[in-house]
Specification:
Number of strands: 0
Distance between the termini: 21 Å
Number of helices: 4
Mean pLDDT: 92
Helix content: over 70%
Strand content: under 5%
Radius of gyration: 22 Å
Number of domains: 1
Order of helices and strands: HHHH
Oligomer: single chain
Structural class: mainly alpha
Low-confidence stretches: none
Shape: elongated
Length: 185
Amino acid sequence: MKRIFLTLAVLANMAIVTAIVMGLLIGDGNERTLEVQRRVGTHMLIGLGALTFATLVHAILFTYFMGTGRWLEETSRAYSLDTQWHHQNQKIKYGILPGMTVCLLLLIATGAVGAAADPATPVSLDGFLGMSGATIHFLVAGTTGLANIFVNLLELIAISRNSSLVEGVLAEVRRIREERGLPVT
C-alpha cells in the first residue's frame, strides 16, 4: 500500500501545483480575450481534476485503514489475540482522520473561493480583507497545497505504522498455526 499511496499522493500534489501554476499564468482574469478565457478554462479543469484526485487519494487511504482495521479485529478474534493490535490500528486511523478532514475542507474551500474569484460570476470576494478575490483564492489554494503535502507525509507515516501492525499479526498467526500443526502459506 505504501508504494501505491506514494505514487497517488505525488500525482495528486503535482496536479495541485500544476493548477496553481496555471492559475498564476492566467494574467488579468477580467480581460475578455479568447486567450485569457482559454487559460481560465484550462486552470478550472485542471484545478477541479486536482481537487477530485486529491480527495480520492484521501478516500482510498481511509478505506485502507477501515479494511485493515476490520481484518485486524476479525483475525484477533479468530485466533484469540490480544485486542491491542486492533486498538493500535484505531489509534493510527483516528489520529490521521483530523488531517484528512482539514485537507478535504480546504480542497472544497479552494474550489468555492476559486468560483467566487472568477470575474464571470455575480459573486465577488474583491475587497474582503483588503484583497482581490484572485489573491484570496491563491492564498487558499497555496494553503491547501501545503496542507495536503504535509498531511500526505503524515499519512505515509501512518501507513508504515499500520503495516507493522499487520506484519505483527501475520507473524503471530503464523506462529499459532505452526504450533497447532496447521498449514502456513
